[in-house]
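Supplementary Text 2. Reproducibility record for the structural model of the 295-residue chain.

All settings were left at their defaults, and a single model was retained for analysis rather than an ensemble. We include the record here because the model underlies the residue-level annotations in Supplementary Table 4.
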Amino acid sequence: MANLKDISRQIKSVKNTQKTTKAMKLVSSAKLRRTQQLSEQAKSYALKINEILSEIAYRLSMHHEDHSINRAFSKNDSPKVVDIVVVTADKGLCGGFNMATIKEVRKLKDQYEQSGAEVRLRIAGRKAIDFFNFQNIAIHDSKVGLSSAPAYDDAAEFIKEVFGEFNEGKTDKVIMVYNGFLNMLAQELKVKELLPISLDTVDTSVENSSMLEIEPDDDEEILDDLISKYVDFNMYYSLIDSLAAEHSARMQAMDNATNNATERVNDLTVEFNKARQAAITTELIEIISGVEALK
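Retained model, structure tokens:
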């Protein structure tokens, strides 16, 4: 049976770990509330800009015989170059949050490479960067610190090259992969085809149509500006959504760790009591034996 001092030392160590995990859970909970509010506000804007952009693009396409108005809306079922924009956390201790995204990225990468396409990874988040570097998988572009402290200007700067190369024809498709916030207890893996933009979901019925009136002569200027904002804000929203999900996952992980530490302390306490009882019993037997020997 283990020494009493060793068990006591283990109990003290586990209790210290328990204090740390409990504190981290509280910190993540507070950060989650702030980030969740920001995410909900950003989501409303993102949905609206997507809706407006799709409707304008659809209406302007009616003025073109080939229904093609911008490369950003041209479908490409056989892309030669695919950019995958990946968002993960800079830190760990959040369960399988980062690995879920990394596994999906590897799956997509293999699928496109099997079809003959070149896949380029553009990563925001230390965890994915470290993983792919360790696996000797080439990273086209990377940024640390962006996912842990999202800012619109930084997000726009990161995605600027992606958008520029797509417009120049160097890239045929841009896919965004990240783990988004679903609720306090769950995260949702999101795979979004950022470019080209699909018009399949546009509701063209009169009763659901907005009051937008677009002059065909201004279509290129309007679309270029809207598409740029669409790409920039979707990048920014993915960072906020991922950060909220990260705090949610870390809060769960730390809660599980705290519960496990509590169970471990209870088990060690039982073991300590048994060891102490055994030691006392041994001492009593020795005393009684000594007394009997003196008789």
